[in-house]
Write a structure and sequence with these properties.
By secondary structure, the protein is of the alpha+beta class. The protein folds into 4 domains: 5-92; 97-186, Beta-Lactamase, CATH 3.30.450; 191-262, Helix Hairpins, CATH 1.10.287; 264-437, Heat Shock Protein 90 (2-Layer Sandwich), CATH 3.30.565. 55% of the residues lie in helices and 18% in strands. The strands form 3 sheets. A 5-stranded antiparallel sheet has the order 2-1-5-4-3. Helix 5 packs antiparallel against helix 6. 22% of the residues are buried.
Amino acid sequence: MTFDPRRVAGARALASGAALLVLSLVAALVTLPGAGAVVIVLLAVLAATVLTVSVVTLDRAGRASAAAATASARDAATVGGALQDELAARDTVLSAMSEAVLLFDPDGRLAYANPAARTILGRRFDTATEVSPRPLREAILEVHGGDGGGGRPDVATRQFETADAVVEATALPAEPPGTVVVVLRDVTRARSVERLRRDFVTNASHELKTPVASILALSDTLRTAAGDDPEAVARFLSRLEQEAERLAALVGDLLELSRLEAAQPEPAEVRLDRVVHDEAERLRSRAEGAGLRLRVEAARPVLVWGSAADLALLVHNLLDNAVRYTGEGGEVRVSVGRMDGAAELTVDDTGMGIPSRDLDRIFERFYRVDAARSRETGGTGLGLSLVRHVAEAHGGSVHVRSVLGAGSTFVIRLPLAAASPALEAAEARERLPEEVQ
């Protein structure tokens, strides 16, 4: 039964009339005898019936009214709870975003700011006119008061720098008119990557151009001197070969770098001690030809998880770098073992050392401490960059200590792989010599 106010009012009026009629008839019954009294009684019964029906109607209407009020209250509570849940979910999502979100109402007052906004901007404000820095304030006011055609304000984008970040801000119009939503992103890393990529292209182009130019010049000289000066021809051919080897090495390192950045190979268990021995043997003849002593120390098997080819590249580049920058009569020592729950590879040399001002930059692409010596010995400037890339790709790290004129020490730390039964058995029966010469 639905609640109808008009029906309730009618029932109330009928009940009042019936009650008055009953009272009147009872008074008449006292004064009238005989048949008249019977008529009066019948009329009184009729009036009482009407009164009863009216009271029942009022009771039902009252209960319907109470039920309707209860249902309305329940519906309101349900809608209110859903709204609260929706607001809580929105707040959770916006609070978890790394991007800053600001909302300004049509009067220019700040209606909402998520936690990232406080972190990126570093200060509080209540209105759009109080916003700092200036480029952000201009973007907000432009959208708040501008009109880009069709009755819609323009979208405004600005970039600005804070104390430690580069921020990109986008201001967008929203409803009702005059409302502005602002999204701010920290683009410091993206800008840094873009700058590194641009510098890399510039440096790579320069590095490739130098040997190519030398090859072209030597070829032209050979064409001129081929019939007149056999000794000059032999000398120029030797230089031509050196430049070609340098170009091949540079192209090879660029391809390695591209491969490492493109995709990671399927990891597997790798015996790092065996990788070290293999790469040391590959470079031994060259080291001995330069008058150097190459020592390998690996007392026990060391198992890591990763790519054998990439780890071989890491070891080779470290040893190659040590041999290049260690003078005749010097020593290069490589050791591998376990230290504090990690695999540790150490390469020591007694070479020329690295100035302290250059220690933070030697892992940058194409950075050379001694550019002239690097080109003279055939270095590409990418070897140590590849070392760091491989180490970090394997979850490890690389550190360097150096004293100018006394040599350098490179330390690579990599996570150990869980020892397998086969390795434990091999370790029990296999003991590699402490020194291989």
